[in-house]
Amino acid sequence: MEFREFGKTGHKLPLFGMGTYYDPGWIAAAKLLRMKPRSDMHLKAINTGLDNGINFIDTAEIYGTEPLVAKAISGRKRNDIFIATKVWRSNLEYDSVIKACNGSLKNLQTSYIDLYQIHFPNKRVKISETMRAMEYLVKEGKIRYIGISNFSLRQMLEAEEALKANELASTQMPYSLVDRKIEKDILPHCREAKIAILAYYPLGHGKLGSENASLSAAVADISRNHGGKSLSQIALNWFYSKHENVFPIPRAANPLHVTENVGSVGWALSTDEISRLEGAIFSAK
């Protein structure tokens, strides 16, 4: 597995991580019915990634998958694993942040969280109050780094300004070949400020397909150039080949898919191949 520095933290992470958001139905079943469908397969998927050096796992209190992550990392060396989780938007008041963090620590069966992220902004709670709680958690050793998710650039700048003793480590946003909105403002700012970007829905959340003739031709040629790589492998490699501060987090739901994702590293798209891919997507719109 290849690694690169995670923003300004000095911590090195694999080129991609594992997401543990499955679907709304799974979350509802976990919370309301105490049922976790396909948990054995999801657990095997996470362990497949860990066995292949993907030691970066993203979860959230709202997902209901923190206990699953705890089970996956049980028996492994904690310091070798980077766990990112998120506090939900209804828990952003000072005391609520601390309570939510303690709940996540209990669910994850760990003494610290590597990256604690604000899942969504909440206009009813001042970001300064939330960040004050986050910095308290850093000081107490319960979290290592502070991140945000689903923040606009304006909200992101406010979050950065609210931090007094720490710097913002990362933001998490939807980003893929078919959804490149963050390239307008968020991505340039993060590149300049050395803030890492966690890209969720990196495979387009079902919108990335090869039904477009131009894309099909581009993928076929690129695949031949790189030993038969799949569309998913090419779409993930696009991140590594184009950016130094973007970490896609494809969902770890099926061990076969995780194994396929591992094949997205160890090679690089050329500048011409990147342009052709992006041009094929653009022509389909």
Low-confidence stretches: none
Assign the CATH superfamily: NADP-dependent oxidoreductase domain
Distance between the termini: 35 Å
Structural category = alpha/beta
The percent range for helix content is 40-55%
Task: State the CATH topology.
Answer: TIM Barrel
The backbone outline, from C-alpha atoms, is: globular
How many helical stretches? 11
Can you summarize the main beta sheet? 8 strands, parallel
Structurally, the number of domains stands at 1
Kindly estimate the percentage of residues that lie in beta strands according to DSSP: 15-25%
Listing every helix as H and every strand as E from the N terminus to the C terminus, the arrangement reads EEEHHEHEHEHEHEHEHHEHH
CATH architecture: Alpha-Beta Barrel
The averaged pLDDT comes out at 91
Strand order of the largest sheet: 3-4-5-6-7-8-9-10
Describe the structure.
The protein has 285 residues and is an alpha/beta fold. Helix content is 43%, strand content 16%. It has helices spanning 24-32, 39-51, 66-73, 94-108, 127-139, 153-162, 186-193, 213-225, 231-242, 255-262, 271-284; strands spanning 3-5, 12-14, 18-19, 56-58, 82-87, 113-118, 143-149, 168-174, 196-200, 246-248. The protein has an eight-stranded parallel sheet. A two-stranded antiparallel sheet has the order 1-2. The mean pLDDT is 91.
